[in-house]
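User: Hi! I'm a student and our assignment asks us to look at how structure tokens line up with a sequence. Could you show me two examples?

Assistant: Happy to help. In each example below, the sequence comes first and the structure tokens follow. Example one:
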Amino acid sequence: MTSPSYLWEKQKHTDKLEVFDCPEFNPYDGFKRDPSGFYLLVKVDFATYRIEVAICNKDHVIEIIFSGRKSQDVYESILAYEKKNKRIWFKDKTHIAYLGKELKKAEIALALGHNSYFQE
């Protein structure tokens, strides 16, 4: 599209504003492992009212578990730990976005109080 059918109120925009129509993504066909070899597991623990993220290595061994009450607490801690300890768990930005998506889904399930969370 070369011009939008709407403009956001009070927001300046360039004369060459482009609106990109995003194709639907299939998470199963589009799945790729992170080049680092690491992956993550996310779960909701209703007994402790916490979200947990396990970082696993390429040999499927959990190296560390992060636990927090809110999604932002968890992802901020993961990224700070990674930086402080010079770890590289996420080389591909799509995996960072995936972490954020899964954490928010887990947080919503926790807030609703029913075990509706499943990791994609």
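Example two works the same way, sequence first and then tokens:
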Amino acid sequence: MSSNPAITPKPAGRDHRVDFWRGVALMMIFVNHIPGTIWENVTSRNFGFSDAAEVFVFLAGFASAFAYGKGYLSGDPVKASIKALRRAGVLYLVHILLTVMAIALFAWSAFAFGRGELLQMNNLAMFLTRPLDVMIGIPTLGHQLGYVNILPMYSAILVMLPVLLLVARYGRHTMLLASAALWVACGIWRFDMPNFPQEGGWFFNPFAWQFLFALGLYCGLSRWQRGYAVAYSPLVYCAALAYVVFALVFVSFDLFGMEQSLGLPFLLGTFDKTYLTAPRLLHVLAVIYVFAYAPKTSPISAIRRENPLAVLGRHSLPIFATGTMLSLAGQVIRYGTIPSVALDTVLIVSGLAIQFALARYLDWWRDLNTPARQTADRRADAGGRIGAAMSEGGARAAPAKA
């Protein structure tokens, strides 16, 4: 066997660690979408500049390299583009369904509990004051409810995906450079998808967030084409770890505001989520790099297909949709109640239990109807764990497909 880790062969198959991290992100998104609970204090956004949304979008980009990029770059761009656009359409329909269900939930709750103020939450008030405008804004994605606004961004990025892959035919680096240029331009001139009937733009600006998606796409394409996504470097690892620690200290001691004294441009010196400014972007990349190269002996380096979090992440869209409605129901239940650790715990545990049960059912149903896929996955497991998705030699492990 060659001693050069860069040419160490990588076994084929699904890397369940990506599903695992996607499952972790889904859990944290659910917890964060019931604001004010005690358990919200232990999610990732309390320990750095980024949160679960950034991780999820990066993993989605990585996934797209295998779901669409391989077909596009292997000579069937039309089919791959249609698949991506079809997926964007599915996300759009799920978003519209979630929006209508959210309106129904809060409207029913306002009548049932005599709490009309519930209709002032989560950007619902305009539905009462300007209903006709909102009826236009909802299907055109201009009017988005709070906590039901990430799928439009994801859908818009999938519409951009064929263009990213077209540029990627001239090289992965060219694609990444073009994506970075759009991110910089967006940060400088502050353009966004328009809100209607309100002023301003989308909370998740797709022109900014596409860069994080493209970074995941780049890593996925690199993994497919050369066997590893990003080479391991002790210097880069130390820098990434140092930045993660710096962010932890900065957030823990609530040092926000100090950055204003530096006089840096908006894109470099703020923590804006809409435009995914540099401190947030660098933080999620640093976190991914640190966890990507966890030692092979660590539990997160050998995730099996049956891992509950991997099962959760394998069915991300139905789990996200279910978690969204459960979290909104949790907001209604908590509204006006005295803060209680017991109530918070019941809401979080019961909501997660429902999602895990649904994921297990979906896994069982899919395996029941696709035995060939089940057999292939289990053979991949039996043949050995997937090598490090972001390493050259597999000495360490990386999160991969979203």
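Here is something you could point out in your write-up. Confidence is low (pLDDT under 50) at residues 1-12, 383-402.
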